[in-house]
Amino acid sequence: MAQPISTVTPETEYAEIHGWVHEIRDLGGLSFFLIRDRTGIIQVTIVKKKALEAVVEAAKAVSRESVVRVAGTVKGIEKAPGGRELVPDTFEIIALAAVPLPLDVSEKVPAELDTRLDGRYLDARRPRVTAVFQVRSCVLGVIHELLYAEGFINIQTPKVVAAATEGGTELFPIAYFEKEAFLNQSPQLYKQMMMAAGFEKVFEIGPIFRAEEHNTTRHLNEATSIDVEVSFADHHDVMDLLERIIVEVYSRVADTCPAALAQLGTDLDVPKAPFPRLPYAEAIDIASSRIEEDLAYGDDMGTAAERALGEEMGEHYFITDWPTEIKPYYAMPYEDDPGICKAFDLMHPRMELSSGAQRVHDHDLLVSRIESKGLSAESFEFYLEPFRYGMPPHAGWGLGAERLVMTMLDLPNIREAVLFPRDRHRLTP
Ligand code: ATP
Ligand code: MG
């Protein structure tokens, strides 16, 4: 059985490893190979005069990024990575890699993001890239655990739907027999319907599709949304939940992924709860005093406003009490001040991470909210019906998984946080 490379120490006597040829250095009578598996890198040293002929032959024929099986004695040696090297009596090529490689895996030659994404299978062999996806896996694992521990039911809702969640235009139409259908932009309506079903606490971690044409470093056309919905809860309850999750995810990643974080050179600063809850009206004042563009009460927060606010706040914060006008119809207006609603955004200093709200649970109010947005209540009949037969008050949010990972690891582009990004120009691989 092959041994994970990271478990080979200077004290190991004999080891068999399987991995990829990370680097080859041939000094004539002496050659060095770095062999890599997902746990680490080890130096393999061949002294041609002393080595078996079969070993010398295979070592001569092998190319970088080939898969090999190497076995031999281990020696402590200070200059080698991990303070040890392997002197092989077996060096077997399992899968020879073609030459030249489309992409340099050893990170000596920096590649453009596009080239890297084209050859993602090679790009992901780089320890830094593997580390991002180890952290992403940990983040999603921790969120599952936390939500299960709080009694949530994990649900899966349809991704092929007949109507837009918010009546917007950002939808991908698809051919669905003789009907018009779309890829769902959010599980919003379905998770709310499960409140009518009495599930009380649900979550879904799944894809959302947005036909946004712009190409930014924080938008994807297929993203992963972490969605929750909770009955008998208001916006503050679900802000508390979101805050707990963010803090716990950071601290669990710091505890369980030290190797990946070290690989990325990231020192995780665990955010401190409670996060400031800044009313929209104040947020607009702060932002408009700091940016050149005109920004007035009732405007959406643009990129410049978000950045200016982020600089001012310097940490995670919520923007609360949004004008009802600019939030979706399902956000609950304050009873005593219906011009503002119980919606919030969770912001990282760099960008929005999540949007949520206490929802409208009264059928007639919801119909009038839908109509006031210029939408037809008829096309929402499947969604509205449950509100007529006992819908509890409820609240929830959607949190972008890629944005969470991107901001946590300070990645420059959201595409770094997804294996095979879908954007305006990219449909393969
Ligand atoms: P933004 O204004 O930043 O484009 P949004 O307000 O349109 O985001 P929501 O509909 O509120 O997004 O979706 C909830 C969360 O899902 C967002 O806060 C974000 O984290 C994530 N999200 C939404 N759209 C995208 C996207 N195109 N790419 C990546 N993540 C997204
Ligand atoms: Mg939003």
Under CATH, the homologous superfamily of the largest domain reads Bira Bifunctional Protein, Domain 2
The CATH architecture name of the largest domain reads 2-Layer Sandwich
Percent strand equals 25-35%
Overall mean pLDDT stands at 96
CATH class of the largest domain: Alpha Beta
Helical content, roughly? Answer: 25-40%
> Roughly how many Å is the radius of gyration?
27 Å
Polypeptide structure, described:
α8 (280-288) crosses α9. The model has no long low-confidence stretch (mean pLDDT 96). Strands 6, 10, 11, 12, 13, 14, 15, 16 and 17 form a 9-stranded mixed sheet that branches. This protein has a 5-stranded mixed β-barrel with strand order 1-2-3-5-4. The longest helix is centred in the N-terminal third of the chain and has 23 residues, at 127-149. The protein folds into 2 domains: 5-95, OB fold (Dihydrolipoamide Acetyltransferase, E2P); 127-276 and 315-417, Bira Bifunctional Protein, Domain 2 (BirA Bifunctional Protein, domain 2), CATH 3.30.930.10. The protein has helices spanning 53-61, 113-118, 120-123, 127-149, 188-196, 235-256, 258-264, 280-288, 303-313, 363-372, 381-384, 401-408, and strands spanning 14-26, 30-37, 40-47, 67-76, 84-95, 153-154, 160-161, 173-176, 179-183, 201-209, 222-231, 277-279, 317-323, 333-334, 337-348, 351-358, 394-400. Helices cover 28% and strands 28% of the residues. β1 and β2 form a beta hairpin. The protein is an alpha+beta fold and 429 residues long. It binds adenosine-5'-triphosphate (ATP) and magnesium ion. The site of magnesium ion has 3 residues, from β16.
